[in-house]
Write a structure and sequence with these properties.
Layout (H helix, E strand, L loop, with lengths): L21 E7 L5 H14 L2 E8 L3 H4 L2 E9 L19 E4 L2 H9 L9 E5 L6 H4 L9 H11 L2 E5 L1 H7 L4 H12 L6 H9 L5 H17 L23 H13 L5 H14 L2 H20 L8 H14 L4 H8 L2 H11 L10 E4 L3 H7 L2 H8 L2 H11 L3 E4 L3 H11 L9 H18 L6 H9 L8 H15 L2 H4 L5 H12 L6 H11 L2
Parallel strand pairs: 1-4, 4-5, 5-6
Antiparallel strand pairs: 1-3, 2-3, 7-8
Helix pairs in contact: 1-7, 1-8, 3-5, 6-7, 6-9, 7-9, 10-11, 10-12, 11-12, 11-13, 12-13, 13-21, 14-19, 16-17, 17-20, 20-21, 21-24, 22-24, 24-25
Length: about 525
Amino acid sequence: MNEHVSMTNNIGAQRLSTDKPLSLAVLAMGGQGGGVLADWIVGLAEAEGWMAQTTSVPGVAQRTGATIYYIEMLPVRDGHAPIFSLMPTPGDVDVVLAAELMEAGRSVLRGLVTPDKTVLIASTHRSFAVGEKEKPGDGIGNPEVVVDATDFAAKRTIAFDMETLAVKNGSVISASMFGALAASGALPFAKQAFEAMIRAGGRGIEPSLKAFNAAFDRAKDKPRDPVSATPSKHFDALPETAGHPALDGLVYRIRTEFPEEALPLLFAGVKKLTDYQDPAYADEYLTRVAALYALDQKAGGAAKDFAFTVQAAKYTAVAMAYDDVIRVADLKVRASRFDRVRKEVGAKDDQIVYVTEYMHPRMEEVCGTLPKGLGLWIEGRPKLFNRLDRLVNKGRRVQTGTLFWFLGLYIVSALRRTRRGTLRHMRETEHRETWLAAATDLFEVNYDLAVEVLNNRRLVKGYSDTHARGLSKFDRVMSALSMLRDRDDGAAWMKTLRQAALLDEKGIALDGALKTVATL
């Protein structure tokens, strides 16, 4: 990484000649307080007897990048007002402050960060871009690319999770970035001057000062955080007990009936399914995985570190916790969700927050929520089904904070008690067992391919149209199984097909991959 030397308050003075302005660029998204940070910097400079100017170049949040707030400052000289630039010039920016990791990367690509002069101050947290979220698979950008780029692009880098630090102190990221800027020494002003600027703001002074000082100390002690290229795969440590008789029994089963390699995933699966349905449902899950583990042992899975059982523990839980209308309603009316939303928008205790949801139910979801006999009866009468579909298949924007819609969703969420008797549950169970049977039938001919068949379950997710598209891709990938089962490279090709299916929503890449497999 770049030099991690101790910083004094006047490092920036090495750069400061008064023949040209000191320039700063702040890259921030909506809600991150980029405008407030820019105003603080300008106010600070003016309070210290400098002249300063700020301009902004709007972005469209994460679609095309953050808004760039550009600041230039220069000491007053001979009573003449300087002429400042309106936009940053690539290769001529002294300090870049990026309120998110990928925005730091964008600043490098734009040429705003240069190794001969730029101090880069960046938060290492992520706010995923639309392009990352819209991909069916893992579309998350590789942060190591940004880290490697800043190693060479910046003269000096201060990078750590300023968002988390700000939230812990009840403030927003602009306050912690201001603290990191003060600690950098890139501006020739004392820390007390920075603090005075925050106090002059009049709102949220104490939380802002806490975040400022925490970031100041953090930047001084450890300027740079290491950044992992992949999201954390952390699982809770497996406890001895769960504090409840039914759950304690499940933990005991995990500890005594399964291989060590599968324990973290089994515990995560039990937690998920207990929350999704009840402890009895989680017990069904363990029983099903135990049967698969027995087959894995007979197939010599120990030599493969029981890879089949490990993936079965993961994806059987995913398959059993399918997204249905009941689950969606349950998640939307939880108190923890309302608390999270209030925290995200920074609402005060005396403020009312309404969440507007977009709902577009289809008759397929309605029938799936009904008892299986009634659901099948309606589906078997196309005229009735279509007439009812015209009534329910409409987009609606509803406020879950109102009594009417909250009660409606709460009643739907209470149907979880009857979930096992619904048409959707019957179909999900049939699909799950067909999928697991296809995997276990491969044990004698191709163990690795059996593992990849289990991994194919990641293609099925969501509900409504999203679920239908995922199920279609799953079926198309599985259609190649007969062509691959006797091939030594069958597992590799199955993985390739799955990766192709995850590349685009319409499955264009998958079409090409299937044609390739057909010619093998």
